[in-house]
Amino acid sequence: MQFVVAVVLATVLCGGCSKTSGERVVRIGAASDLAKAFTELGKEFETRTGIRPEFTFGSSGLLSKQIAQGAPYFLFAAANKAFVDKVIEAGVCDGKTARTYGRGRVVVWTAGGTPAPKQLSELTEPRFKRIALANPDHAPYGVAGKQALEKSGLWAQLESRIVLAENVQATMLYARDGNADAAIVALSLAVVSDGGAYLPIDQFLHDPLDQQLVVCGKGAEADAARKFAELVASAEGRELMTRYGFVVPP
After folding, report:
1. Domain assignment present for 124
2. Same domain for 213 and 91?
3. What pLDDT, on a 0 to 100 scale, did the predictor assign at position 3?
4. Collapsing DSSP states into helix, strand and coil, what is residue 218?
């Protein structure tokens, strides 16, 4: 774990070095379920502003810990509210800028050629020997997936089959690469997957995944982060987030 954190921090710190060439960047730490949506939105942002978003996607819990310890991200987009609250409480992010940008949905995803279960209880079938789940210790989608299995009365039966991944994006890779027979992931990743099938999990089986973002730090990069947050909240940003499976606030 220490190695992973060190690599991520090194990547972030090196990202700031790109500004020495005159290139304008804004460093953003974002939950893994945003990888596809924010990458697309980032291209539009760069076209409009000339500022390149430099994303690090990971689990919200690990990112919040890094930010609280001084990692130089100027926008933090988490997969829930709790981890945004933590960086605000640490005094490194501006609570006045915190906003909900969407509610995430959870699905059971299977790679191409493997039919998805028609209902959650089918995960107990022998064909699902390994089920990938983001680590609930620091990944909101892992928490939601575990809650859904518990409320469905399936956790006790399936716990021995669960394979934990670092974040929800890595969870999906487990299934895609054949290291798991199914993965509990974000709808935002499943809707743009190359093949595969998915079963939406009833949202009443887990706590709401109300996802928030917040601006951190000061100066030019913080100003750029505010502009990116405004794009996320714009009509175009809301349409894009909806297309990726998020339920956007009214």
Report:
1. yes
2. yes
3. 32
4. coil
Same domain, yes or no: 140 and 155: yes
Amino acid found at 240? L
Whose structure tokens read 């620091």? 138
Residue 162 DSSP label: E
pLDDT of residue 10: 38
Please choose, from the candidates 98, 10, 16, the residue with its C-alpha nearest in 3D space to the C-alpha of residue 54: 16
Residue 14's domain comprises 2-103+209-243
Beta strands 99-104; 52-58: pairing state: unpaired
Q: Which one-letter DSSP state was computed for residue 178?
A: T
User: What's the pLDDT at 6?
Assistant: 36
Rounded distance, CA 79 to CA 135, Å? 13
Report yes or no: 117 and 148 within 8 Å, Cβ to Cβ. Answer: no
Residues in the chain predicted with pLDDT less than 50, given as ranges, are 1-18
Which of 134, 133, 131, 135 shows the shortest CA–CA distance to 117?
131
249 located within any domain: no
Question: What is the reported pLDDT for 178?
Answer: 95
Predicted confidence at residue 9, as pLDDT, reads 39
The pLDDT assigned to 219 comes to: 98
Indicate which CATH number applies to the domain containing 196: 3.40.190.10
Identify residue 96 by its one-letter amino acid code.
K
In whole angstroms, what is the distance from residue 181 CA to residue 171 CA?
11
Residue 107 has a pLDDT of 98
| β-pair type (182-186, 106-110) | antiparallel
